[in-house]
From TrEMBL:
Pfam families: ABC_tran (PF00005). Transmembrane segments: none annotated. InterPro entries: AAA+_ATPase, ABC_transporter-like_ATP-bd, ABC_transporter-like_CS, P-loop_NTPase. This is ABC transporter domain-containing protein. The keyword Transmembrane does not apply. Residues 6-243 form the ABC transporter domain. Keywords: ATP-binding, Nucleotide-binding, Translocase, Transport. It comes from Ornatilinea apprima.
Length: 266
């Protein structure tokens, strides 16, 4: 059996010593060249889990491992060459062109104050072509729509040429066409050997993309395993504390819930 690319071992995390525990004795293993979806209610620690996996936060206890080695043993540029992050949103303070912004993803390969070279520009252009924005690379990022900005964030992460790509709610700002494009892109990345981990509030996105599913509640992994085993009415109802039903429609799994209006008309 292969070594997990990313492991969390009995991780406990609080943002401040006096704060509530965000992650509580959490353990999880991410297998290489897989797509893992993380589902759970707001506030269960999904984004925090990604930040710990990136090395941007350190647990109060427990350990995070990358390729079997403590994440803290890697230098910052080494982590940047191995792991990319696509955040939900990002404030852009300067009037970068799209290409200039994507070139920021090449920082882990450059010395301090070193300017990007031809190889870096080629990597950035390939990333833009992958997400479908190569034709507008000179446009200012500040003039883009929310969906286009999201694709720029994906391109910047791809410019890092990571082996592990972490995405926080990646489909939030995308229209249907760009959502389908992103899902196809993530499948292609997996086929090329990249490991993909993403959080989402859309169970149907997890159902069409992921091969592994993590269900979180109360700062812990409640269930984890293959999508086939975990994407069930019982498991999702337990995770969200809401009665839901999983049905198959046109060969795809969809989630149906009953709201208050339904109950009033029973």
């Amino acid at each position: 059996m292969s070594t997990p690319i990313l492991s969390f071992e009995n991780v406990v995390f609080r943002y401040q010593p006096q704060d509530h525990t965000v992650l509580n004795e959490l353990s999880l293993q991410i297998e290489p060249a897989s797509i893992t979806a993380i589902l759970g209610p707001n506030g269960v620690g999904k984004t925090t889990l990604l930040l710990l996996g990136l090395g941007w936060r350190r647990p109060q206890s427990g350990q995070v491992l990358l390729d079997g080695k403590d994440l803290l043993s890697y230098r910052r540029n080494e982590l940047g060459q191995r792991i990319g992050l696509v955040p939900q949103t990002e404030h852009i303070a300067y009037d970068y062109s799209i290409l200039e912004y994507v070139l920021l993803g090449r920082a882990p390969y450059l010395m301090p104050l070193e300017m990007p070279g031809e190889a870096d520009c080629r990597a950035a252009q390939r990333a833009l072509a992958t997400v479908g924005l190569a034709g507008i690379s000179d446009r200012p990022v500040t003039e883009l729509s929310g969906g286009e900005r999201q694709l720029v964030l994906v391109a910047r992460a791809l410019a890092q040429q990571p082996r592990l790509l972490l995405l926080d709610e990646p489909t939030n700002h995308l229209d249907l066409g760009n959502k389908i494009h992103l899902l196809e892109l993530l499948r292609d990345l997996k086929d090329s050997g990249v490991t993909v981990v993403f959080t989402t509030h859309e169970p149907e996105v997890a159902a069409v993309l992921a091969d592994q599913l993590v269900l979180m509640r109360d700062g812990k992994v409640q269930h984890a395993g293959s999508l086939q085993e975990q994407f069930t009415s019982e498991r999702l109802s337990e995770t969200y504390d809401t009665p839901v039903e999983v049905h198959e429609v046109a060969g795809r799994r969809v989630v149906i819930w009953r709201n208050g209006a339904d109950k009033k008309h029973e």
